[in-house]
Design brief:
This protein is an alpha+beta fold. The protein binds zinc ion.
Length: 703
């Protein structure tokens, strides 16, 4: 699996600029031409640098707001000093996402960007300009959420999907059809019959314009998985969507559930079929069975438009997808033709950008955590502050480089940004409030847990504790192994793991399977009953599903998707541990294959695997051979008359279903046997269907 690291913090100059703007609350004052020239050269360089990161690498280092601030300052200077505008300024360009690894495709009709508005008066000015130009005051607008993803053009010819292309430079873009086809609700064919059953003609050629994005729930799921794997979480769903769409292997694209929304069009042939309005377009998109816009508003005056824009901003935290603004479009297509376009954007639309949720608070401390692979991660401890509907008291700082770049000092007043599920990030320092005695943060040279001297891997920004016996790493590894994503040992939480490691009852993973009832009784929160339950749960985990077991082992570069591929290929723990690089390369990329082979060659790892096998650990390989239970989630409780829990799990997985440990509203069925307890109560409380063995066998077609 490819890993792209994303850092949200600026180079020093950008931070300085951002801080200066925020601190004074105003744009910089008038400059002399010589100073203006220098400043413009600097700004152009920075905009070009950040364009490259944003559009080509999908890995911006600064927030959108900071980037917009750079472009606006440059734009203001260009207006003040037109004589200094030499050649093409980046403020005119719309960026370019072509990255050189895809086939290029030329759009039939140019894919333009949208003009931006940032204030109420700019938005009102947009309406006033159109009223002047069209000589009328009865204009109707649609107000749509501005999805924060990657713009694409999807072409259908005679109703059949033929290609998906990114915007690129607006003239030609990267052809990403194969990756786009992993999107579940992108139909291969337009429905020639509308929902009313009436004929629904399809054009000969149509270029539909829209956005590929990552819904918040999926963004959150991916980050939970990354954190469990000891990887830095992604900072923003847009970058994940853009990065994912540009992966070279569609098999890596599919597990990340990208989504698509279509909100406009380019070529439309024959043009006789063109919709008369944006509203008619939205209805047509739905009638063809395409993913259209779920909600938009209509405004008949500047007041109504402004009210609708504010309403979107108010609703934004509750939306299921990332939104960074509202797009206002002239509804009538005939009037659009009258007002036309500039070289880069239509005159009939504007994108109003919402201000990010930002707060200023004090950085109280920087603590350094040790991950299960030894990576030291700094975390900002903040004076609690309310932001984006939540109280924020911590923010990730990613790594030592980021702290140094931003010069974040303990005691500083910092700006924190957050939107939706985005992890709060520190985006700048209010230098005006910095204490005279403050000093730059010194990143520790020793592991805060075991005091081993830290190492820095060449070419990586991560700093690691190299001590394989470091107890902080061990705790994290055991936590991950026992977690729901791993072998799921119920009742073995972080506090108990801490106690077991502190008392040296666990010095390495196999010790988990040497724990006896007597070792557990008396540990914090453990009585006789819970000790019995825990022992049973540990015993059960010996026969956990193989891919979860593999994932739980914290192997280098192996996330849950790779773990599934390994389980399918090797079918047993012993088989996996004795494979070589070329065998791993059948299901993994070259670097992961080499890393895994090297890992299993270490004598310490060999001993660990041998011990696990000797202790009776035998994870079960199970694979879907049918789709009878596809999309269904089961929770097992109690003892079934004819099957062990592992056998029942294997049958459910083989039928395409999923088994989880705890009952939630997403549970499809609770399969209950003799002695069912709390899970049965939970199922009843949540209204989840409870079935017994006989009914379950009917479901999987074995009764
Ligand atoms: Zn350590």
């Amino acid at each position: 699996m490819k890993i792209f690291t994303v850092s949200r913090v600026a180079g020093f100059m950008c931070l300085w600029l951002l801080s200066a703007l925020v601190a004074t609350g105003a744009e910089p004052g008038p400059l002399q031409p010589e100073a203006a020239r220098e400043r413009m050269v600097l700004l152009r360089g920075q905009v070009a640098y950040h364009d490259e990161l944003y559009y080509k690498k999908s890995a911006p280092e600064i927030t959108d707001a900071a980037y917009d601030a750079l472009k606006r300052e440059l734009s203001v200077l260009e207006q003040q000093f037109p004589a200094l505008v030499a050649g093409i300024s980046p403020t005119d360009s719309l960026g370019d996402d072509r990255n050189g690894t895809f086939q290029l495709y030329r759009h039939r009709e140019r894919m333009q960007s949208l003009a931006k508005s940032y204030t109420e008066s700019e938005l009102r000015g947009f309406n006033a300009r159109l009223e002047r130009q069209l000589q009328r005051n009865d204009l109707v607008y649609t107000i749509e959420p501005k999805f924060d993803g990657l713009a694409v053009s999807v072409t259908y010819e005679r109703g059949k999907l033929v290609r998906a292309v990114t915007r690129g430079n607006g003239i030609e873009g990267d052809e990403v059809t194969v990756n786009a086809l992993t999107i579940a609700d992108l139909p291969r064919e337009l429905s020639a019959k509308g929902p009313d059953g009436l004929a629904n003609p399809v054009p000969d050629v149509i270029e539909l314009r829209g956005e590929i994005y990552l819904p918040w729930a999926e963004f959150k799921r991916i980050n939970v998985e990354r954190e469990a794997a000891g990887e830095a979480p992604f900072a923003h769903p847009r970058n994940v969507a853009a990065g994912t769409l540009k992966l070279s292997d569609p098999r890596e694209v599919a597990p990340r559930k990208l989504a698509l929304v279509l909100y406009g069009w380019g070529a439309w042939l024959p043009s006789a079929g063109l919709p008369v309005s944006q509203r008619a377009f939205h209805a047509q998109v739905r009638a063809w069975g395409l993913p259209g816009l779920a909600g938009y508003s209509v405004g008949r005056s500047a007041d109504e438009v402004w009210a609708a824009v504010q309403e979107f901003d108010r609703l934004r935290p509750g939306l299921a997808f990332p939104v960074d603004g509202a797009v206002v479009k002239l509804d009538a297509v005939a009037l659009r033709a009258e007002v036309g376009a500039t070289e880069h954007a239509p005159r009939w639309a504007t994108a109003y950008k919402f201000a990010p949720d930002r707060a200023e608070t004090q950085l109280l401390a920087i603590t350094v955590q040790v991950g299960r692979s030894g990576v030291l991660t700094p975390v900002a401890e903040l004076s609690p502050v309310s932001l984006g509907g939540a109280v924020i008291s911590r923010a990730t700082l990613h790594n030592a480089d980021e702290i140094a770049r931003g010069d974040f000092r303990v005691g500083d007043f910092v700006y924190v940004e957050k939107a939706g599920e985005i992890i709060p990030a520190i985006v700048g320092v209010n230098v005006a409030r910095r204490a005279a005695a403050s000093r730059p943060f010194q990143f520790p040279n020793a592991c805060p847990s075991c005091q081993a001297a830290v190492v820095r891997v060449a070419g990586e920004s991560a700093v690691r504790c190299p001590n394989s016996e470091c107890s902080a790493q061990l705790r994290r590894r055991v936590q991950h192994f026992a977690s729901e994503a791993g072998v799921e040992i119920e009742g073995l939480g972080p506090a108990l793991i801490d106690a077991l490691v502190t008392k040296a009852l666990i010095r390495e993973l196999p010790d988990l399977y040497r724990l006896r009832r007597a070792d557990l009784i008396g540990l914090p929160g453990v009585g006789a009953t819970s000790a019995d339950r825990l022992v049973a749960s540990i015993e059960r985990s010996k026969r956990a599903e193989l891919s979860r077991f593999i994932y739980g082992l914290s192997l280098p570069q192996i996330g849950s998707v790779s773990a599934q591929a390994l389980a399918r290929r090797f079918r047993s723990l012993g088989g996996l541990a004795s494979a070589d690089t070329s065998e791993f390369a059948e299901v993994l990329g070259p670097s992961a294959a080499a890393a895994l082979a090297a890992y299993f060659q270490s004598s310490r790892v060999r001993v660990t695997i041998a011990e696990l096998l000797a202790l009776g650990v035998a994870p079960v390989a199970s694979f879907a051979t049918s789709t009878l239970l596809a999309g269904k989630t089961f929770v097992l409780t109690g003892t079934l008359p004819s099957f062990t829990r592992a056998q029942a799990e294997a049958k459910i997985v083989a039928a395409g279903g999923k088994v989880t440990g705890s009952v939630s509203r997403n549970t499809s069925y609770v399969l209950a046997g003799e002695g069912s307890g709390a899970k049965l109560d939970a199922a009843r409380a949540l209204g989840v269907a409870v079935i017994e063995e006989a009914a379950w066998l009917t479901l999987i077609g074995e009764n």
